[in-house]
Amino acid sequence: MNFPEQLKYTKDHEWIRVEGATGIVGITEYAQGELGDVVFVELPAIGTRVKQGESFGTIEAVKAVSDLFAPVSGEVIEINSQLEKTPELVNREPYNGGWLIKITIAAMSEMDALLPADTYRELIGK
Question: Residue 113 in contact with residue 79, Cβ under 8 Å?
Fold first, then answer.
């Protein structure tokens, strides 16, 4: 299983990649595997403010519907519109084409609460 070192992770299986003041958010390879085939993703509108640890949308798969949780607080500046037509990108490319939202990070200090790749790997036992 792949857990890119440059990403930070949540205990709820989201990841964030920081590019300047922007955070790109998705779910981990582990999470998509546990969910099974993703059939629908509900994402917030651009301009929505999200708060660290709170739900910002849902992901529906053959096995279950799960909430998506914000790794950090901020404002949604872009959603992955590709997921409307091809939600299975989350399964095929969880760290690239299957990203969910981009947010302007409100407080970089919130990144300190997130897990590095090795700690996340230990958390899920991989």
Answer: no
Over pLDDT 90: what percentage of the chain? 94
Count the alpha carbons within 13 Å of 53 in the hemisphere toward its beta carbon: 4
- Asked if residues 35 and 84 have their Cβ atoms less than 8 Å apart, the reply is no
Per-domain residue ranges for the chain? 9-121
Amino acid letter at 79?
I
Q: How far apart are the first and last CA of the chain?
A: 7
How many other CB atoms are there within 10 angstroms of residue 9's CB atom? 24
Count other Cβ atoms within 10 Å, centred on residue 42.
13
3-state secondary structure 30-49: HHHHHHCCEEEEECCCCCCE
CATH class for the domain made up of 9-121: mainly beta
Contact 101, 80 (CB under 8 A): yes
Question: Nearest-CA neighbor of 28 among 114, 106, 107, 113?
Answer: 114
What is the pTM (predicted TM-score) of this model? 0.96
Which residue from 124, 104, 122 is spatially nearest to 16, judged by alpha carbons?
104
